[in-house]
Target: Aliphatic amidase expression-regulating protein
Amino acid sequence: MWVFCFWGGTMQAVVKIGILYSTTGPYGSLGREAQLGAEFALHDYRRNGGQKAELVFFNPHADLAAYLEGARSLMRDSGCRHIVGTITSAARKEVIPLVEKHDGLLWYMCPYEGFEANENVIYIGSCPNQHLIPLFEHLIPRYGPRPYLVGANYVWGWEMNRLARELIVNAGGTILGERYLPLEETAVERIVADIAEKRPSFILNNLIGPSSYAFLAAIAELGRRDPAFLPENCPVASCDLTECELADIAGGAIGQLSALSYFDGLNTSENVDFKARLKAWRPEMGKVSTIFASSYTAVALCIAAIEASGSDDPVMVRQEVVSRSWPSVLGNLVVDPTTNHAALPFYLGRINAQQGFDLIASEQAIPADPYLITSRQKPARHLRVVQS
Model:
C-alpha cells in the first residue's frame, strides 16, 4: 500500500499527470488495461485523502503520429510535466524527444527490448536481463537450443530476436527460423507451416496484439494435429503476453508460457492487499495483468514522489524516486539512479484453463542491466522452480 505525504499550502492547487494510452486499435485491450490501472491508482490516492493530483487522458488510437500530438497536447496545453504511458516501443521512442524538449518525465511501464537509458524516462517495465535471459535459462536446459523466432516488425521484435540469436549462439545452439509480421497481420499460416517442417525445440513469440493471438491459436491447432507441438513438447514462450489478452486467443493457448514481472495469482501480501482494494473498487474486475499493475505502480510512484519532493519539477521528482525504495504491488521498488530502471522480479507463468497463469518459476528482484554490460559476464543464475 502506498503511503502519501501531503503538500503544504505553498504548492499549486492541482498537479496534472498525463496518461497516454491507445485504448482502441490493435493493442487496445492493453491500453484499456493500462488506463484502468492508472484510474485505480488515482482512486487509491483519493481514498487516502489525496487531493493534489489529477489525471489527464489522451487516446492516440494506435496512430504513431498521434502519440506525438498527444504528448504535445498533454505537456503544452494541459500543463502536464509527467506523462505515464505508451504501450509499444515505437510510441515511446516517438514521444521521448518531445518530453526532453519540454524538460518533462515519461513513466514507461511495459516490458521492452532494452538498450536505452534516458534521464527523462523512468522505466518501470522490465528489460531483457529481467525477462528474456532468465526465460532462456529456463527453456534451453529443458527443451534444447534450437528455437524458432517470430516477432512484430518493429523495434521490439527486431531487438528481442537479435538478443535471442546471441543467447542461442553462445549456448551452442541454432536458430531454425526467424519471421516477422506487421502489428495487425493475422495471416500466420506460412509461418506455422515452416515451424511444422523445421520442428524447433521451442518458439519465442515476440508478436503483439492480433498477430500474437492468431499465431497462438494456429499453434494450438498444430498441436492437436501433431503432438510434437503440444506445449509440453514445444512451448511457445512470450515476454509480453498478459491475462487481459487471453480471451482474445481463439480456442485458448493453454500450456504456453509468458515471462513477466507480475501475475494475478501471486501469493504475496502486497498482491493480496492490492486485489482486495481493487475488488472493493470494482467488484466486477476479473484477473489483474502486469499491464494493470505496472500502470498503477507508475502513477502511484509518480504521485508519491511529487508529494515527497514538494514539487512536480521532473529533476526533483527523479531525485526523490532514486533516493529510496518504494513499497508496491511489484515488491519494494528500487530505481537505479544511473539508468532510471527499476529492479524487478522475474516470474514464469503457464496459461491455465481459467484464462490465467500458473506460476512455474520465479526469481527475486533483478537489478536492471539495459545494455547487458554485466549480464553477459555473469554465469547463469538458478531460478526457483515452483512447478515442473
Remarks:
- The radius of gyration is 20 Å.
- DSSP finds ten helices and 15 strands in the chain.
- The first helix runs from residue 28 to 47.
- Confidence is low (pLDDT under 50) at residues 1-11.
